[in-house]
Amino acid sequence: MPFLSATLDRVKPSPTIAVTTKAAELKAAGVDVIGLGAGEPDFDTPANIQAAGKAAISNGHTRYTAVDGIPELKQAICAKFKRDNHLDYTPAQISVGTGGKQVLYNAFMATLNPGDEVIIPAPYWVSYPDMVLLGGGTPVCIETSLERNFKLTAEQLEAAITPKTKWFLFNSPSNPTGAGYSHDELKALTDVLMRHPHVWVMTDDMYEHLVFGDFKFCTPAEVEPQLYDRTLTVNGVSKAYAMTGWRIGYAAGPEMLIKAMRKVQSQSTSNPCSISQYAAVEALNGPQDFLAPNAKLFERRRDLVVNALNACPGITCPTPEGAFYVYPSIADCIGKSSAKGTLIDTDEAFATALLEDTGVAVVFGAAFGLSPYFRVSYATSDAQLTEACARIKTFCEGLN
């Protein structure tokens, strides 16, 4: 009798974490490594939010809380959805988890049965398909294209829906591409969903406040109010508020679904960290004036990286609407060899050779379900980004 669960055979470890770990190991060994793999802001949590966390400790808020969030945080989340997305929810429709990942996982565990399908546009965040598999469902990954700016079309969505489809999982702006759907582009998708009332919508809005230029963020239940009763809108404080380590994610949806998710969480982690919850109340209720300057900072970095990568032989880098990632194509590099003789036959081979030869750590495109590409996180300093792009250019110039 095998000791380990057969469920583990269906999933793989997170490639983004693996890249970050390998980069850290090389750096610890004395190698000059520039890590462009981690998806987290490089600045500190705002001082007022830090102070709220410290005050929570001083005020004795260090005990168990309600399984899926304290009342103060649920009220703050309701206010946030009304303020930012024009969506009305009650606290009974809110679930708070240990990061957005747990919230998504809870929803899948609470709703998926064997044979249920989940439509996921590719490229996708690396954890989506594996969470579906852990929940017993079947991921149906639909490839998008560089030519369409990595956005799923209404025709593709329509063709992917079957009687077994339970969820459509949607992420805008996207990790890994940064692609953001406009109101009209999203309306075309919601029009399709309106014709298929058995399909629920799970929308990951984690990068909502990191959008650039004239792009306006919108979310499916806002674009099509008739989808409200079958939409789970997921968000969190990790990215916009530089609180990745605090581990607070949340979602709003039908009370029946939220209750089922609470049951899953009650038998897994129970409540999120009490201190982090009080800090998240301050994040959502406190001053929001730093969000726009932070987005502007990332927009400048985006332009720096896009311009530098497009100057590299064999690389084509589109300009994303948001988040802090770019997803350049290396189609013209495939089949060549590096200056040190490594055959670049896949994007994984490209990323591996790039790290070993130059010390620049990126994540290969196959991890996100679409090749031949790689992901760069530009959530680091201008100096680091400039040096990293210079090394990538030297590496590409050496391919033959």
Detailed description of the structure:
- The protein has 400 residues and is of the alpha/beta class.
- The protein has 2 domains: 6-44 and 291-397, Aspartate Aminotransferase, domain 1, CATH 3.90.1150; 60-285, Type I PLP-dependent aspartate aminotransferase-like (Major domain) (Aspartate Aminotransferase, domain 2, 3-Layer(aba) Sandwich).
- 39% of the residues lie in helices and 14% in strands.
- It is built from 13 helices and 14 strands.
- It has helices spanning 15-28, 47-58, 71-85, 100-111, 127-134, 154-160, 183-194, 220-223, 255-266, 274-285, 291-310, 347-358, 382-397, and strands at residues 34-35, 94-97, 117-122, 138-143, 165-171, 200-204, 231-236, 249-252, 325-326, 336-337, 343-344, 360-361, 363-364, 374-377.
- The strands form 4 sheets. Strands 2-8-7-6-5-3-4 form a 7-stranded mixed beta sheet, with helices on both faces.
- α7 (183-194) links the parallel β5 (165-171) and β6.
- α3 runs parallel beside α10 (274-285) and α11 (291-310) packs parallel to α13.
- The longest helix has 20 residues, at 291-310.
- The radius of gyration is 21 Å and the shape is globular.
- It starts with 14 loop residues before the first helix and ends with a helix.
- The model has no long low-confidence stretch (mean pLDDT 96).
Overall morphology: globular
Low-confidence stretches: none
| CATH hierarchy: architecture of the largest domain | 3-Layer(aba) Sandwich
How many individual domains?
2
Protein name: Aminotransferase
Cofactor: pyridoxal 5'-phosphate
Keywords: Aminotransferase, Pyridoxal phosphate, Transferase
EC number: 2.6.1.-
